[in-house]
Amino acid sequence: MTDTTPTEPDGGQTRDLSAARDMIVCENVSKWYGDFQALEQVSATIKEQEVVVVLGPSGSGKSTWIRCINHLEVHQEGRIIVDDVELTNDLRNIEQVRSEVGMVFQQFNLFPHLTVRDNVTLAPIWVRKKPRAEAEAEATALLERVGIPEQADKYPGQLSGGQQQRVAIARALAMEPKIMLFDEPTSALDPEMIKEVLDVMKTLALSGMTMMVVTHEMGFAKEVADRIIFMEGGQIVEQGTPQHFFENPTEDRTKLFLSQIL
Amino acid sequence: MSELSSAAAAANVSGAAPPEAPKLPPRQWAKENLFSSPFSSFLTIATSMVLLVISRALLGFIFNPIRQWNSTATNMQLFFTRAYPDEQYVRVWSSLAAIIILTSVSMAVWRAGSSIPLSRLGRKLLAGAVLLVLLALLAPFSASATIQWTLVAVCVAAIGEGIRRSAGKGEDERSVSSLTVLVVTLAGLVASLWVVPFGHHTYIPSRQPRVLAESGTVALTTKLPWTIMLLIAVAAYLVGRVIRERLPLNPTRVTLLVLWLLAPPVLIYLVLRDPSFDMGHVVSTDLPIFAAYAVGGSLLLSWLTRPSTGEAGRIVAVVILIAGFCTFLTPMRMVVRLDMLLLAVFALAAPTFAGGPRNRKRYVLGWLGVLGVMSWLITAINTPSTVSVPGGFFIGGFSITLMVAVLTLVLSFPLGIALALARTSTMPIFRLLATWFIEFVRGVPLITILIFFSIMVPLFLPRGMHLGEVAAVVIGYVLFSAAYLAENVRGGLQSVTRGQHEAAEAVGMTTAQKTLFIVLPQGLRVAIPPLVGHCIGVFKETSLLAIIGVFDVLYIGRIVIPGQTEFMGSTKENLLFVSVIYWVFAYQMSKASQRLEERTGLGER
Ligand SMILES: Nc1ncnc2c1ncn2[C@@H]1O[C@H](COP(=O)(O)OP(=O)(O)OP(=O)(O)O)[C@@H](O)[C@H]1O
Ligand SMILES: [Mg+2]
Question: Rounded to whole angstroms, how far apart are CA atoms B548 and B407?
Fold first, then answer.
């Protein structure tokens, strides 16, 4: 298991995760919105400590898939197993999965009526039942980790977009999740703030967090991802290491997509 | 440009204050705002003319010598408490004192009040003096009265100018706390009771002649209590300051909020109404029921709040809820049913508060407290008042208006919020029940509901149970108010975005936690303006009490006083007075809502 220890950023492509445990298993997951099929037989396995970047054109079902994994959307066919717990309609399983999976949204979705500190401590105190003092000490440490320890007493509305997104990451991390899901975390940010958020995500990846990231930041994908999954029309079209994906993709649709964005 | 620097100093913000828009001299201000174009000049002049005509008519009405203002002054006691017996009057004063103490302590603890620059205060007094002069000129006064009013105006202007001069300029501009201004004003008013010959008026139906009107200052039974009230207010404020310095802030605030919530029922049932408890019944029935629920409920809740209980707890909670509804199908005591429903609510919320032994103990104590208050309220409602007042209602006039309004609001808020949550919930049964209830109540005129509750419900009540006089009416008001409140709250709840719901769910919160910590705080904040509008509405709708035979303030002003042989036909005067009372309170509520919006909006933006 020595291979799974964090290595240099560009070494991400070389690390061998085949021996690691399965964290997320999707088997033939399908989902419909009314008559429209948003996911079609999606199957994938994500290993512990693996960083997967999901790419694809708009409307290809990336958000739908990632949101199925913590049951914000409900899939209709197939199986999703997160850390050995299968997602069914059983409330207890859903709550267990959700408390182990952290999610970061495009629009931050911080709680505007609570201070930054309360945003971070609310779930640990009420869901994890931690004593307040302990939760607050951890919140301070987390805010330090994402680089904004001095903003703890402000309200989200008083922060910049980049700072808000970092608070959102800290809020998700406060639950000590085993998996982090990111749905276009930098798409709502001004260019100069994107880097500060990506840096936080990079350190998180290096610390060994299992991550699934939907993003349009190709630099991040090349540098940090262990694997890239390309989706279109609700299906997984192609997947592989960044090297494989960017340098010699096999599918025509992948080539077309890459030619449009690069 | 000294105005500019003083304005900046007034802003009193830490660090560098942002530059404020420069203040214009009056003439230029008028030119820019009132006479900027021919059309706006025309509007300004036309509006001023209309205002002038209206105020002249109003003043002409008020100061017309044929007005019987005597009738209002003589019947002050009737207006506010109706025939509450004189020998029991100390109860009225002591409940007022309790409210004043709570208010003052809260003002100190929450640091109410702001600092007003002396120059602004001076300018306000000068403006007041101008108004007084206008009044003296417009009103149909005799020459000597005009001179008197003008003299008063000159005095006010002199004081205002003096304050303005002494204000200082620039950096060392002096200011004064708004609370000091308030206390000085109140002290002035109270002092005037001792000095100014307002006259001593009383109306006593049982003696001949019925009207007692002596010149001199007001009766000792008026000026002495008010003086004591002012002293109590100041003393309580000082005590509150000590509390703020010495005691931990958050527990103090929570305690005060709980006291505010408890104040209306305690004051009404213990101080003003003084129920005569039938101790035999209390011991044989009420206490055993309370004890059973206290013990059983505590055991159940301490099991439900164990983190390991899990899914079984939810099933038990739902079973209790259904059992609670089923109790309405068979004859039994209302207390049993209500306690059962209350227990169901606590059981449903239990997983939210699950945790270590300390959490669980606190939750059980919360249950005991709420259960205790509810049991006592029900027992108190079911017992007659020992204060015997002609007509059956234990108090009347403006007191009953306030009482019904406050009780209605305090009780209908939780009910309305619960209805709104039920109507937006994912459970079809709750949604259906709430929708039916709301639509039914909104489709029926309030007056019908009131008549139903005052006349019909006592007929349907099971043997051995009877509702106290006002209680039946209040229940009608509460149901009506809750239905409307629910719709206002629902509007607020729907303004909470989907992203907020998802964020709460994504960190693993249960539906109850999400509702309590995320959805309700944000939804209620959005709903503040319509909710305050609703509060003002409820306050004014209490005037419908007159129709079912309660002597509320409007009824007294419209029917009772004009019916007194001495004051035949004094309806107009008394109606004007009543509307002023209503307006003062409604306006204060509106101001409070603006302050609340400012305060709670702080974090957002
Ligand atoms: N709530 C919904 N109801 C109906 N259709 C939906 C809903 N949400 C998504 N869809 C549809 O499902 C498809 C996949 O949507 P999804 O949001 O997953 O795309 P995406 O890959 O995340 O796109 P983007 O890059 O624009 O975020 C789209 O065609 C979209 O129109
Ligand atoms: Mg998307």
Answer: 18
As to burial, measured by CB atoms within 10 angstroms (0-12 exposed, 13-18 middle, 19+ buried), residue B228 is middle
pLDDT digits (tens, 9 = 90+) for A189-238: 988 889 999 999 999 999 999 999 999 999 999 999 999 999 999 999 99
pTM: 0.82
CA distance A126 to chain B (A): 7
Please state whether beta strands A210-214 and A179-183 pair in parallel, antiparallel, or not at all (unpaired). Answer: parallel
Would you call A70 exposed, middle or buried from its count of C-beta atoms within 10 A (0-12, 13-18, 19+)?
buried
Q: Which range among A70-74, A141-145, B13-17, B375-379 shows the weakest confidence by mean pLDDT?
A: B13-17
What pLDDT is attached to residue B6? 41
Tell the residue number behind the tokens 């990506």, with chain if given. A198
Residue with tokens 């139903």: B452
A3, A5, A8, A9: CA torsion to nearest 10 = 100
| Residue from B341, B460, B380, B394 nearest B81 by CA | B394
The verdict on a CB contact (< 8 Å) between A129 and B355 is yes
- A256 at B interface, C-beta within 8 A: no
Would the CB atoms of B603 and A105 count as touching at under 8 Å? no
Give me the residues near ligand 2 (ion), CB cutoff below 5 Å.
A 63
A155/B525 CB distance under 8 A: no
Determine contact: B87 vs chain A, CB below 8 A.
no
Neighboring chain A residues of B521 at a CB cutoff of 8 Å: 113
Predicted local distance difference test score (pLDDT) of residue A95: 84
Nearest-angstrom CA–CA distance, B548 and B532 = 26
CB contacts, 8 Å: B604 with chain A: 112-113, 155, 157
Q: Rounded to 5, what percent of chain A is helix, strand, coil?
A: 40, 25, 35
- Who among A105, A112, A129 is closest to B604 (CB)? A112
Instruction: Judge contact between A224 and A60, C-beta under 8 A.
Output: no
The reported pLDDT for the residue numbered B569 is 82
- B355 to chain A: closest CA residue: A129
Look at residue A93 and tell me whether its pLDDT is greater than 50.
yes
Protein residue closest via CA to atom 18 of ligand 1: A61
Contact A111/B at CB under 8 A:
yes
Tell me if the bond preceding B209 is cis, omega within 30° of 0: yes
- B498: chain A residues, CB-CB within 8 Å: none
B249-266 helix and B357-381 helix, angle to the nearest 10 degrees? 20
Mutate to test the pocket of ligand 1, among A31, A32, A35, A36 (most ligand atoms within 8 A of CB): A36
Report which of B100, B79, B140 is spatially closest to residue B240, judged by C-alpha positions.
Answer: B100
8 Å CB contact of B500 and A109: yes
Instruction: Answer whether A70's CB lies under 8 Å from A25's CB.
Output: no
Q: Which CATH architecture has domain B392-605?
A: Orthogonal Bundle (1.10)
Contact assessment for residue B355 and residue B307, using Cβ atoms and an 8 Å cutoff: yes
Task: For residue A23, report the phi and psi dihedrals to the nearest 5 degrees.
Answer: -95, -45
* pLDDT for B601: 66
Which residue is closest in CA terms to ligand 1's atom 19? A59
How many other C-beta atoms are found inside a 10 Å radius of the C-beta of residue B289? 15
Span B418-442, pLDDT tens digits: 999 999 988 888 899 999 999 999 9
Residue pair A224/A52 in contact (Cβ under 8 Å)? The answer is no
Chain B contact present for A88, CB below 8 A: no
Residues 6+ apart with CB under 8 A from A219: A198
Pairwise CB contact (< 8 Å): A92 & B310: yes
Q: Which of A8-22, B264-278, B442-456 has the highest mean pLDDT?
A: B442-456
Which residue's alpha carbon is nearest to atom 26 within ligand 1?
A58
